[in-house]
Write a structure and sequence with these properties.
There is one protein chain. By secondary structure, this protein is of the alpha+beta class. Helices cover 31% and strands 23% of the residues. Strands 1, 2, 3, 4, 5, 6, 7 and 12 form an 8-stranded mixed β-sheet that branches. A 4-stranded antiparallel β-sheet has the order 9-10-8-11. Strand 6 and strand 7 form a beta hairpin. Helix 1 (127-138) runs parallel beside helix 2 (162-177) and helix 2 (162-177) packs across helix 3.
């Protein structure tokens, strides 16, 4: 099988303790993505069935009006914000994934998007359409046609980065199939165009986690992505209330947020964010959980959209959870735990409480996925 490479338009990697910085200029390391050792001993994203990693010197498959190329890519779900890190923190999680199959052939810029699996909009209302439309204009791909099949595995409107997973997989597929050789920041920027379809504006936290895997920190000013090598493994209980969400759930969840905050509140929020990142570096799970629970800007407003939110938070923390907050834009909530058994035990308590209050819900126990976007075929 031919190895598909993102080529030589690279990504900056500055080696400082526990952090990998992804920018635009250095040569890539395994597609510019360095994987930490949280769950995988691999230091590269590999093409299944091929022992070479994607930093191979083999040229990417080219289309440029010459022939048809087919690529299949998957990307994981993610949880954004992690409490105080609104729009700048996210982590990829195991389990749920989206798969995007892209066929590119000579044409006139036509885009067709179909969906299998969990039902979400097709055509222009799908995030994949927004990603490819942006790519056609940005990279002058008007001489190609794009046929996309999204196999939807990440539950939509749940706070688990559903649109971000589709956007990340689509951007990566376009980069490979059209021979664009995009850097990490270019992939993130392109994926953000898909997020704008459902959120109203681009945002880059979920897509960064889905592309790189692991826990990521985003600098929105320069769109630089910092992947944090986490000091200790932890487990996550995700509880998703089965409530009506509507097609513009993310847009609404962003609309309820304040446009301005007072300086003392900013200082408290910055302190929580700094504590969280430091705790991840040194593997201090107790401090990490405390920081996750301390969001002074977003949580008070979005909590109003989630039934029994404050009761769930109190129950989780009193039952041994290290931290608790809203998963992305909600309505899912998540708690942090030392072990899988603790995560399941506390998750079951939250589930029981919601169901006892007449609210159906689902429980999902997971951990950080250090593997981000990858080619399946």
């Amino acid at each position: 099988m031919t190895m598909l490479s993102l080529g030589t338009r690279g990504v900056i990697f500055k080696r400082i303790p526990n952090v990998v910085i992804a920018g635009d200029n250095d040569a890539p390391n395994a597609v510019g993505f360095r994987e930490s050792t949280l769950h995988s001993k691999s230091n590269s994203i590999t093409n299944p069935g091929n022992s070479r990693d994607m930093s191979s010197k083999a040229a990417p498959q080219q289309i440029r009006g010459e022939r048809e190329v087919r690529v299949i890519v998957e990307a994981p779900a993610s949880i954004a914000n992690l409490g105080p890190g609104f729009d700048v923190l996210a982590m990829a999680i195991d389990g749920f994934k989206d798969v995007v199959e892209l066929v590119v052939k000579p044409g006139s810029g036509k885009i067709v998007v179909k969906v299998e699996g969990i039902k979400v909009p097709e055509g222009k209302e799908n995030v994949a359409y927004g990603v490819i439309e942006e790519a056609v204009e940005r990279y002058q791909l008007h001489n190609m046609d794009f046929n996309v099949k999204v196999v939807k595995g990440v539950p939509p409107a749940s706070g688990l980065g559903s649109s971000g997973a589709t956007a990340a997989a689509t951007a990566y597929a376009v980069s490979v199939a059209a021979g664009l050789n995009l850097s990490t920041s270019e992939l993130v920027r392109l994926s953000g165009a898909g997020e704008a379809v459902v959120a109203g504006t681009p945002h880059y936290d979920n897509v960064s986690a889905s592309i790189l895997g692991g826990v990521v920190l985003i600098d929105p000013a320069g769109l630089r992505i910092y992947k944090i090598n986490v000091g200790r493994e932890f487990w996550i209980a995700v509880v998703s209330p089965n409530i009506p969400k509507g097609p513009k759930k993310t847009f609404i969840a962003r609309a309820v947020l304040p446009r301005k905050i007072e300086l003392p509140l900013l200082v408290k929020q910055a302190g929580s964010l700094a504590r969280l990142v430091h705790a991840l570096h040194v593997g201090d799970l107790e401090s990490f959980g405390t920081a996750v629970s301390a969001d002074y800007v977003v949580e008070p407003h979005r909590a109003k959209l989630i039934p029994k939110y404050w009761d769930l938070k109190r129950l989780a923390l009193e039952s041994g959870a290290l931290g608790f907050n809203i998963a992305g834009a909600g309505p899912s909530v998540f708690s942090i735990h030392r072990s899988e058994s603790e995560a399941r035990e506390v998750g079951e308590l939250m589930l029981k409480y919601l169901r006892g209050s007449g609210i159906d819900a689902s429980l999902y126990v997971t951990k950080v996925s250090d593997r981000g976007v990858r080619i399946l075929r």
